[in-house]
Amino acid sequence: MSAALLTGKALAGLIRQEVEEQARKLEADGVRPTLAVVVATDDSSTHWYVRSIKRAAESAGINCRIVDLGRDATGPVVASVLRDLSATASVHGIILQTPLPAGVRTEELVGHIAPEKDIDGANPLSLGRLAVGHRSFAPATARAVVELLDHFDIPVAGRNVVVVGRSAVVGKPLSLLLLQRDAAVTVCHSRSGPLEKYTRSADVVVVAAGRAGLLTGSHISNDAVVIDVGTNVLADGSLVGDVDDASVRDTAAALTPVPGGVGSVTTSLLLLHTIEAAREQSTALVREAVG
Description:
Blueprint: E1 4-5, H1 9-28, E2 34-39, H2 44-59, E3 63-68, H3 75-86, E4 93-96, H4 124-131, H5 140-151, E5 160-164, H6 171-180, E6 184-188, H7 196-199, E7 204-207, E8 225-228, E9 232-233, E10 239-240, H8 245-249, E11 254-255, H9 262-290
Parallel strand pairs: 1-11, 2-3, 2-4, 5-6, 5-7, 7-8, 8-11
Antiparallel strand pairs: 9-10
């Protein structure tokens, strides 16, 4: 048996089509969806990624502003820029790109992003609103997992889903999204004990721990669906996930590849969140004007 591959290319394409259609509608109403990406590093891979976001955004009809503060930017400078962008009506979505300069802490800055413009769910308020079921933007990677499961008609309601990793970027928000879908969710981490104690009985396993080869075929049952969120760069420059691909392919029922799985959907969802934010903000302005 070889696992079915749950690739993200087709889903990403469908999301891009929706983004382009909604961008045209907003443009016709006089609204140009605008995304601002704040960068404070000279890391070449980060700048490559940011340029790829800009290309994808502008090809879909979204204006993308790269705010490059340089590698020596201080925390107060970054915070001031985030507050200014949050107060700028023509900017609808904001991303604070990592890494940041040494000594500048992401968690101390993301609270300056207005929740309605926090399209990657970085502000703790966004996570809190998500936890209680209020409208908020989930981190795009976490939502990408759920969208992939939906796209391939993989149900989670009433099923055992194990999430490996508890980061605020993926593990925690993903567990909340899955709970909203009525899944029975278990979150594992470095203190949970032997991983197979949880994953062997899981219907769906999502791995987002940042450790290459963490999950092997011996950790899962034969009918499990495995979603690999990991992105690890090896010494030879190749990209691998958190799953030992060879052994899991021979065991799992289905598996997302790395690259080509969850990551390919994430950027498309960032653009969709920008569209959703632009639509919601423009509607709020109209209501305010009407009184």
